[in-house]
Amino acid sequence: MKSGFLALLLSIMVLNMSCQLKTTVGSTKNKKGMTKVTILYPNAEGKTFDMDYYADKHMPMVAELLGNALNTYAIDKGLAGRTPDDVIPYLAIGYLYFDNLDSYQNAFAPHVAQITGDIPNYTNIQPVVQISEVLQ
């Protein structure tokens, strides 16, 4: 039973890694002290998310608008919850990496209307945003 659970967990991890879409804007690696902006799109009944639009249009637009302030970004596509039978808690998660909080705020502020105005083009979900400091 224990080995079956471990095999299942390993399979989920491999699937999750294979479905992660990552685009590097610059060559900077994520390092301690950087600011990470996480954009979560919670799953719920009746919610929709166009991953192709998000990955091919929205995030590249955001990267272009944020310019050199943005070090890199990544996109996760939700596959499952804690177990394969659990509903996925988030349909998608986006990540934006900056050198520091000021860099993010100065780059984002002039473009907030354009960036948030594009959200209805790919989802009917109100995103949840968390700004964090990278520790490792």
Can you walk through the features of this model?
By secondary structure, this protein is an alpha+beta fold. The protein has one domain (2-133): Alpha-Beta Plaits (2-Layer Sandwich), CATH 3.30.70.100. Helices cover 35% and strands 25% of the residues. It has four helices and five strands; from the N terminus they run αββαββααβ. The chain has a five-stranded antiparallel sheet with strand order 1-3-4-2-5. The longest helix is centred in the N-terminal third of the chain and has 17 residues, at 2-18. The termini are far apart. The relative contact order is 0.26.
Q: State the CATH topology.
A: Alpha-Beta Plaits
Strand content: 25-35%
CATH architecture field: 2-Layer Sandwich
Uncertain stretches: 1-24
Helical/strand content category: alpha+beta
Strand and helix order: HEEHEEHHE
Shape: globular
Question: How would you briefly describe this protein structure?
Answer:
The protein is an alpha+beta fold and 136 residues long. It is built from 4 helices and 5 strands. 15% of the residues are buried.
